[in-house]
């Protein structure tokens, strides 16, 4: 069993850390929120006095932070960079969703100091974090990936090796941009059908079995009542918030700009989520974007 | 076994008629092209001297024509409308892909005369027409649908009852608009990944198993070499032409305008196919739209 | 002075007919609404008993109708086509805004019968119709244009000869599509500036004098209070309704589809007006589309 | 006459510095390129040995750098930050086009140290820089603006006070985003007209005098031959490069993301420039985007 320093115990990080605890690892957990730490301690984790305390002596460091500047500041450029404290034998697994350029830059800085830092953002939401069924998209060398895999297996179900450093963030940005396109496209096809008198359940079934088939129709139908147990049938509560999708689309725009990649459909989807968010819907599940289309 | 008048023996209509012949029906086939008729006759069909000859005495009439004006002219408003000749006991199955408004208008005109006309456009391409595995999206009453089903089963695999008159055309317009969105979205996600160094096969696999999963990734990958037996691995020959997708998106625009449905993503996809078509790619498979994104 | 049959006395047609009356012409006016006819009669026009009565013996026929099907039905394909009654010496000036294909088709049908039909849609709104300051975009031969000019001069200020038959409709579709782009673009630039703390009047002035200068900034600022006497400073009442812009963008889509012209920006603008219209804003002036952008 | 430290003597900065020299100011010029410095020295400027040398003892510092990271590094966070050397009585005028957030951050850091830093990006291109007719969009206090104005007047013609710190960058991002929309919109309206047989010069004239009027039609027509002396009539050489427009649209996307402003039209325009750039057109004038639309 390994000693794991875990930093960032929010909605996602908390349950991920707890799954590591349950698997028998020695988890030294840190968060700025005492309440978040208490939850992990209640499951058998150890409260670290600080981020520095969490990583000292750890075999693995797992971080789950809001944005690239936090990751860079914490490990590399802040007043007390953790890179000064982490063992050369340890593996740092950053599961934050951040821009690929920062992930690559921090990983390169680690390598220069003989440290090992990989990007491993997740998808699957809070539900997946709790159930330990997250998907991880990992940017790492083969060796790093092999070392990380047993730890990631505890927290997730599908562990993808996307490529070298940064590739995890790139794969996630591509996937989530595509997801935003599938969801808006599905909403507008269903809305047009409904405005012309079709039953959304019937139309959903037809498209699902035809060339319109996609993840949204399969497991996340945006029309209330068509599918049970999805956010649309629960007033668009829970799920994946519009604000988070908007953040991810911002990362996709950054990636497209840096690489001069054309993203007309992703840009169009971002515009729709932005218009939807402007009307006060940032806290709703992202499938609520169908409301933007509907007549008032 | 039924007597079936079949009008329009093109790339789609020809093999559909032949499947009816092979099932033992008495098919009276007509097309302006003698060669097209010869092909059906060679399989055991009967050549009709005219459209009028084809429908006279038929239990079913199946039509497969290019556009709404042809359907309306042939049956209702032309110089020798077939409605004057078709039996009140017959069922007219129009499998053309046309605008819903015309389908509804022709069907209503039929009903006024005591005739029965349903819309049943198909998807599945030439391959599906030959193999008898087309999907039919049917706009009809329950009674009409029940009567049509055994005939459609001969030519297709999935027979969907989309709703009342026009619903087949509406469902197809919705599905194909969504398809255009899935394909362009998939192309741009893959292109951005590749421009940032990811292997398209790896990225495809990740997204297919994640929330980016969709028909294009499952069975029609647009990147050459990722998947065997698809148009992208055959220089974008065969498959579903850009010109046909552009036609279908025009029908979707018509439907959106008539019903004041917002279709920002479908419109964006149409713009991309239009830009791609302008560079002389109308005859390629529609997954070739990935070339629009790629660096030259 | 000429004898002019005038058909269609709505918000635009009424004042146009009255200006012809005031200029001394013998105007035989017809509309399905008796009230509309009364208004013209009160100014010295003559009430025609029917459209047929209005055109019989006229030197000029001016029509102002809602859509292509009305123009085609009235003149060419209806039960009592006016082409049967109009003199070969007369000039038919259709000022309706309709699709170019119908305009060209009706004009060709007229020419086959030795009649002369031109398209001359207008811009300038109800205010321009009343003041006689409309712009006319004319599709006609040089000879037809020369003959129409004195009549159009009575109703308008800028009389443009856009080209041959249909060119007036084409020019109007191009212009109004561009207008929709200017307006939405101006709204979103101003909104982004305001959200970042800029004064809309200051930003408007800067862009007006810079490379962002355009008609909307010059005479139709969409932000309330920046400019006096425009719809934005009057609760978006009056002006050019969202519903009419949406109709014109539908015509632009038709034209783009028929000619396989790529219109990504026009399509994007249409999507925005469509989303705005869906929330019950069809009756507001089109500059109200800025509300779609604004936080709620 | 003032002592002015000028850093960054590229295509824009060089002629701007020379205009300050010609006006009699003592210009201490620095650039990493010796050739760039030689050009300014040949006009009577003084070569500084380093950026530090250029700003020491200066009454004004003017900087013209590629991106926010250069500005931030040079003045504030680099190894030898110029803020350590600049007089508290001096005014720092940054004319670089950078993101507003960085401009505000650097200005705030300056203020904390008792220094005065304003943003004053320009428009008008190399021609305007040489002729001294640039437009400056200035983010500054009233006092700072008053102090900067006489210096800016030497290099420019229209000096706009956009607002407080950052407002110059914000105004420029808004204006250039709107410009990208006007240009693409104008290209597509003209292309659709031409594909339908209209003469581009005639259509340009009609729209210029109608509600489609905008800067592109007035002074920068994208169709070769319509207007003399513009890039379109010179094989799209010179002018404002696609690569620069793409950079500016990236800044607009950043600004929209930070402020959660919806920019559907700006995003659509960015997509078009991106597609155009991907085909090797980054070095052409931005009006060449009309080639993206045209049939091949």
UniProtKB/TrEMBL annotation, chains A, B, C, D:
Keyword Oxidoreductase found: yes
EC number(s) given by UniProt: 1.1.1.31
A GO MF label: NAD binding
Gene3D superfamilies: N-(1-d-carboxylethyl)-l-norvaline Dehydrogenase, domain 2, NAD(P)-binding Rossmann-like Domain
Residues in 6-phosphogluconate dehydrogenase NADP-binding domain copies: 3-163
A GO biological-process term: L-valine catabolic process
Keyword Oxidoreductase annotated: yes
Domain 3-hydroxyisobutyrate dehydrogenase-like NAD-binding: 166-293
Catalytic activity, as annotated: 3-hydroxy-2-methylpropanoate + NAD(+) = 2-methyl-3-oxopropanoate + NADH + H(+)
Pfam families: NAD_binding_11 (PF14833), NAD_binding_2 (PF03446)
Stored PROSITE patterns: 3_HYDROXYISOBUT_DH
Known pathway: Amino-acid degradation; L-valine degradation
Entry keyword set: Branched-chain amino acid catabolism, NAD, Oxidoreductase
Active-site residue list: 172
Family: Belongs to the HIBADH-related family.
Protein name in UniProt: 3-hydroxyisobutyrate dehydrogenase
Lineage: Bacteria, Pseudomonadati, Pseudomonadota, Gammaproteobacteria, Oceanospirillales
